[in-house]
Write a structure and sequence with these properties.
Blueprint: E1 2-5, E2 33-34, E3 51-52, H1 74-82, H2 90-100, E4 101-103, E5 120-122, H3 130-141, E6 156-159, E7 164-165, E8 168-169, H4 172-177, E9 187-190, E10 193-201, E11 206-214, E12 217-222, E13 227-229, H5 232-242, E14 245-246, H6 248-253, E15 260-261, E16 272-274, E17 277-280, H7 291-304, E18 317-321, E19 333-340, H8 342-347, H9 349-354, E20 365-372, E21 380-382, E22 394-396, H10 403-416, H11 423-426, E23 431-432, H12 448-457, E24 459-461, E25 493-495, H13 510-530, H14 534-537
Helix pairs in contact: 2-13, 10-12
The structure holds flavin-adenine dinucleotide.
Flavin-adenine dinucleotide binds near residues 239 and 509.
């Protein structure tokens, strides 16, 4: 029997519409986390903090993400294995990428790297506006070939595939849970169930259940076999620490009994970007539309799942390049160009970033996002000191702590400007916005110092935190789980989510997380089905009588 506990609610319908992707940020389905202030990043943001959106809903962050399906470089996974994680090299994980995949554009992708018939549909959007072709042509002029970035080569450009099905977002909930929900008698799902700690026997260090808050009451669920922690890269370390598994100094300072001293929360990595390089589109390619047109598009989408709302505008072109800091045959910068409103952004870049309510289909500017694929800086997630259980964890992202990260970002910004010289962009009048942003107006626009300032003031993220429950060999001081995803020193407890990634892949993190989940579920099955004890899989948990004397 499997009990799935989710702190959030069911998926809202609005999440289905690709062009509405940014609308759910800062809503009730976002945990609403923010980074701690830092001298090197997010300096112009409100209170010096960057928002780190995380999905609090069935499907987790896959219900709020931008749906991009890019897996990273094969060498990324070879590196995971080389760090002492047997079973995780590219040739080991590729079958798990393929297993979940139902690729609906086999003609566009490189066949041996893809699968059909899996639960997770992957496809290109059915709609492309004229900026999409403009960008693809511009990149081609710069010598970047268009091909499948999920194959054995990564430096190039692509009309990206997405985790959508027939014009609608397909979250991991929609792909993997919905088809079996209410059909399998051995699966029970409880939403709005906020897990507060994992129950671990202090004498034996065996995990035997969880304590969770639901409808104002604290309840326990007991596992006869295993507890699987999949709360994501911020909340999985939080829950381990609340349960006595984590850095002893921190736990002791909060009065938490230490059951296992591990570097939980450390090794935090993310893909940093910026909001500060804006391309202004002319009337020839701007897609801004009247209210009446937007209503017509909405009606059309409702009836057909087609049209401008079935895509994310220019964001569906992604490109991977190398800067002089790349040092290997892998890319170190990814470019996305986000739809933007020029007047809103120039009037108030901070407020605009906080209140993105315009569907991605309608825009007159492109926010150029160089994304740092191979960050050297490492951060840490710690428990909230005043309210460890219900307070937001403290996220010290340490973005740009390593200077090479800042240098790479500046290089990535400068390389992105080459697009402006292509005939594809020049022929339709695309221009760089040259109004200096307030936080950097004291520096000459376009100088290296200006771009470095933009990076540190207007820092952004593409919301890919990973690594805080690092997978590694026993002799790795930062390792939290072994290559079977079992927490060191605690029996019957696995972590299966993005937090186990030892190094962030040079791509997007949703597909790798799904791969980890596929592989992790095989590990669980291998352990328990081997016993031949199929009956004990049923009735694996019991729920105690709820009691209500807790806050
Ligand atoms: C705005 C945004 C855009 C992104 N864009 C992309 C993209 O285009 N492509 C891409 O590949 N990746 C993207 N990502 C990243 C990708 O979605 C994540 O890497 C992936 O979803 C991580 O999966 P996870 O299972 O580790 O965590 P999550 O998906 O965050 O899932 C964790 C789940 O655990 C639940 N939970 C947490 N704490 C508790 C608790 N105490 N009790 C009960 N339940 C709890 C949460 O509510 C959530 O449902 C984006 C993410 C965001 C937020």
């Amino acid at each position: 029997m499997v009990l799935l506990l989710e702190a959030g609610d069911e998926e809202p319908e609005v999440a289905d519409v690709p062009a509405f992707a940014p609308l759910l940020q800062s809503s009730s389905v976002d945990w609403g986390y923010q980074t701690q202030p830092s001298p090197q990043s997010c300096r112009a943001r409100r209170n010096g903090r960057c928002s780190w959106t995380r999905g609090k809903v069935m499907g987790g962050s896959s219900a709020l993400n931008y749906m991009i399906y890019i897996r990273g470089s094969p060498l990324d996974y070879d590196e995971w294995a080389a760090q002492g994680n047997p079973g995780w090299k590219y040739s080991d994980v590729l079958p798990y990428f393929i297993k979940s995949e139902d690729n609906r554009n086999p003609e566009y992708v490189n066949p041996p790297f893809h699968g059909t018939g899996g639960y997770q549909t992957v496809e290109q959007f059915p709609y492309q506006d004229s900026n999409v072709n403009m960008l693809l042509q511009g990149y081609r002029e710069l010598g970047l070939e268009e091909f499948d970035l999920n194959s054995d080569r990564q430096i190039g450009t692509m009309l990206v595939q997405h985790t959508t099905r027939d014009g609608e977002r397909l979250t991991t909930n929609g792909a993997f849970i919905r088809p079996i929900r209410n059909k399998r008698s051995n699966l029970e799902i409880r939403t709005k169930a906020n897990v507060m700690k994992i129950l671990i026997d202090p004498k034996t260090n065996v995990a035997y259940g969880v304590e969770y808050l639901r409808n104002g009451r604290v309840e326990n669920a007991y596992a006869k076999k295993e507890v699987i922690l999949s709360a994501g890269s911020i909340n999985s370390p939080k829950l381990l620490m609340l349960s006595g598994v984590g850095p002893s100094e921190q736990l002791e300072s909060l009065g938490i009994t230490v059951l296992q001293d591990l570097s939980v929360g450390y090794n935090l990595q993310d893909h940093t970007t910026i909001d500060g390089v804006l391309f202004i589109l002319s009337n020839q390619t701007a897609t801004t539309a009247s209210d009446a047109q937007q209503r017509t598009d909405t009606e059309f989408y409702r009836n057909t799942r087609r049209g401008p709302l079935s895509s994310t505008g220019a964001l569906q072109v992604n490109t991977m390049v190398q800067t002089k800091y790349a040092g290997a045959i892998r890319p170190d910068i990814q470019y996305s160009l986000d739809p933007a409103s020029v007047s809103n952004f120039l009037a108030d870049p901070i407020l605009t970033a906080e209140t993105s309510v315009t569907p991605l289909a309608y825009y007159d500017g492109l926010m150029v996002r160089p994304i740092l694929l191979n960050p050297r800086s490492r951060g840490v997630v710690m428990l909230n000191t005043t309210d460890p259980i219900f307070g937001d964890p403290l996220i010290y992202a340490n973005t740009f702590k390593e200077r090479v990260d800042l240098l790479t970002m500046v290089e990535g910004i400068k390389q992105s400007l080459n697009l402006l010289r292509t005939s594809a962009l020049q022929s339709v009048g695309v221009q760089l916005a040259t109004t200096p942003l307030p936080g950097c107006a004291n520096l000459p626009f376009g100088s290296d110092d200006y771009w470095a300032c933009i990076s540190m003031e207007y820092t952004g993220t593409i919301y890919h935190p990973v690594g805080t429950c690092k997978m590694g060999p026993k002799n790795d001081d930062n390792a939290v789980v072994d290559a079977q995803l079992r927490v060191y020193g605690i029996a019957n407890l696995r972590v299966i989510d993005s937090s186990i990634m030892p190094i962030i892949p040079r791509g997007n993190t949703n597909a790798p997380t799904i791969m980890i989940a596929e592989k992790g579920s095989d590990m669980i099955k291998e352990r328990w089905l081997k016993t031949g004890d199929a009956f004990t899989i049923l009735n694996q948990y019991d729920v105690t009588e709820p009691f209500d004397n807790c806050k």
